[in-house]
Amino acid sequence: MIEPQRVRRVVSTVLPTAHGTFQIHGYAVESGREHLALVLGDLDHAGSNGHVPLVRVHSECLTGDAFGSWRCDCGEQLEAAMREISREGLGLIIYLRGHEGRGIGLHAKLHAYALQDAGLDTVDANLRLGLPVDARDYNVAAAILRDLGVRRIRLLSANPNKSDRLGDLGIEITARLPLPVTERAENAYYLATKRNRMGHDTTGNLPDVWNELLQGRVPDRATAGSDAVLLDRYGSLVAAGPTVTIAQLAQSVDGFIASRTGDANYVSGEEDREHLHRLRALVDAVIVGAQTVAADDPQLTTRTVPGPSPVRVIIDPRGRIPQNVRVLTDGQAKTLWCVAGDFEPPPQLPQHVEVVSLPHKAGRFEPGAVLTTLQSRGLGRVLVEGGGRTVSDFLAAGVLDRLYLTTAPILVGDGIPGLRFAGADLLADALTGSVQRFSLGRDVCTVFDFGSFGERRGPSRQSQDVAMADLNLQDPELELGAS
Of 55, 118, 348, 383, which sits with the fewest C-beta atoms within 10 Å of its C-beta? Predict the structure, then answer.
């Protein structure tokens, strides 16, 4: 067994990250090089009950780790490792400085890139420069593991040589787990070279996460980059099953969806509109009110993202929407025009439009009855999109499983309100649920998951019924925001 190099722990503190708060330890070696260890969980009891920590021994890569380069997969491997360790709750990342370009140095790596631009692979580029293919040394990694009291690990790596070298240094590898990340056109040749000429595992491409979600499947492996974002935002929605009712609304910080003149172009930014289109692609039907259709003339399609457009459901008891609006004329998706039973539809409607007669109370449809009608047609996954009045009605009725509420950093002051419903007398009784937040450019989306919160906090069902009656008797207001 090779004796590992001596290291000295010089500082310890905490590092909050997107994947949790890690303990971070700084190590020094005789050469003066500085190295890091990021630790999550209780290593003192690691190995008990067969729980061996996950470990990523990561080679410094400025271009990949800091600049997000797609010439390699280093940055995405690091993020995927942090995500996987966070999911498990126990593990560590050893960040080895001086490993740039598999140990040849930053400038030499850039020279190798230039040769790769001319057609050489990563192995031949190093050899052409008179440099080793892989000059890395893992003695420091083994020494850090020993200092942390870790002798048995599950190694997050597709490189069998790394596993063998750590084994020679006295670290027991109980499993080696590759971290599959998305293969890109920019690094496909590089990854193929690592597999074909350097013996790395063939892990296969991760399935395209968005396509998997569209098929109703939730990938369970670590992902990185945009795939990780999609999985984090929409994986739980897909996992909720075939029958779920969600709502989406964008409003200003002070609670308005449009100005007092009705101008709503646009409350939120482009990132939020892409998010809205992804929600549409993941549901069977999208519901909007008649005022939204009349004011915005929305298409209600998924034109900015891959995926099918949902069935468009127009809540219009009095049949007030103009006959030239796009939902009635464009044929891009099936449209259910929901009207009261005494409404006479115009003759010769296009084939994609179906008139659905529903019972009403005081000129309003009960949200639960609308959902029951849609479910009877096989439309179990429903998005209530707009406007503020319609979303508020479904929220007050207690039929929403999830609410995506985007707030834009603007103050309107006076205008058309967003969410409004009869609230609770006490803040302790306010409506809530488990909460997730994510940024959409300058906007912030807050996701209220009512279904996972057990018994829903908020006003009683009787007070909700009263609120619905009050809302139904109010004068119509504009409902804006769809596109």
Answer: 348
Closest CA to 289 of 352, 377, 367: 367
Q: Which long-range contacts (CB under 8 A, 24 or more apart) does 108-114 make?
A: 109/63, 113/71
Q: Are residues 387 and 261 part of one domain?
A: yes
- Contact, 226 vs 220, CB < 8 A? no
Task: Please tell me the pTM assigned to this model.
Answer: 0.60
Give 130-144 pLDDT, tens digit per residue: 999 999 999 999 999
Please give the Cα distance from 416 to 481 (Å, whole number): 11
**How would DSSP label each residue in 209-263?**
HHHHHHTT----S---HHHHHHHHHHHHHHHT-S-EEEEEEEEETTSEEEETT--
| Beta-ladder partners of 435 | 448
Structural domains counted in the chain: 2
Q: Is the pLDDT of residue 462 over 50?
A: no
Between CA 289 and CA 317 the distance in angstroms is 10
Which residue range is the domain that position 18 belongs to? Answer: 8-99+136-205
CA angle 95, 99, 28 (to 5 degrees): 55
Token reading at 130: 């008179």
In one-letter notation, the amino acid at residue 445 is C
Task: Indicate whether 391 and 453 sit together in one domain.
Answer: yes
Contact between 82 and 19 under an 8 Å Cβ cutoff? The reply is: yes
The three-state secondary structure class of 281 is: helix
